[in-house]
Amino acid sequence: MVLRILGNMPVSQILDIIRVAAALSVLAYASISDLKTRRVNNYAWVALAAVGVIALFVQIAFREADWFYLMFTPLLVIVIYFLYRFRLIYGGADAKALIALAITFPFWPSVPLGAFPLWRSFFPFAYVILANSVLMLSLLPLLFLAYNLVNLRGKVEFPHCLLGFKIPTATARGRFLWPLEKLDDGKRRYVSSLRTKLGLDETAVEFAAAGIERIWVTPKIPFIVVLNIGLIVSLFCGDIISKIISLLV
What we know:
The protein is mainly alpha-helical. It folds into two domains: 111 residues, no CATH class; 80 residues, no CATH class. It has twelve helices and five strands. A hairpin with a 2-residue loop joins strand 3 and strand 4. Helix 2 packs antiparallel against helix 11, helix 3 runs parallel beside helix 6 and helix 6 runs antiparallel to helix 7. The chain starts with a helix and ends with a helix. 31% of the residues are buried.
């Protein structure tokens, strides 16, 4: 039955199904690893990129490749590299995941999902995955604010309440969190998680020694998990940001 269905499909569509299955499988494994250790084995990205390269060669051999979109792949890889070098993409695994996705999806995948994705666009599919993932991350400040308003009974501090939450100093050590404040001459001061030179463990020790019971922290976001969700959202919804812009213009 499966072979009969596949036999009626264009080669490009079969390859797209393989691409999607490989990407979802690798990202699922990577998400679990990222949640547990905030690390992902490089073999995961090598395997995913290898699937993408092989699929592309087969697609070119059958003359079903879209050369216009194919030109965007090396450009997107270069952009991702520089985003990482300038620390706009913070983790090495995140950059490798994006590069692997750019290689795996040089074109918009054509998979049998009925009317989905809802909104296709001119932009490469790998870019859409990244854009949708960033869009989901942009909702975090609202979620943090709602959480803090409830748990702190309205006694929130800005900008801390938009970037994280408070936890007991005694339980802070050894967790995947960044401190959002530091002690400066005995006074608590806000500090960006990207600029602080101290990790949470050292900061928690200082706060505990000063008799401070709670500290503002922000989570080390497992971005691979966000990318996994972003891929699924992109497969069904498509380019959400372009759709929003088209409604506003």
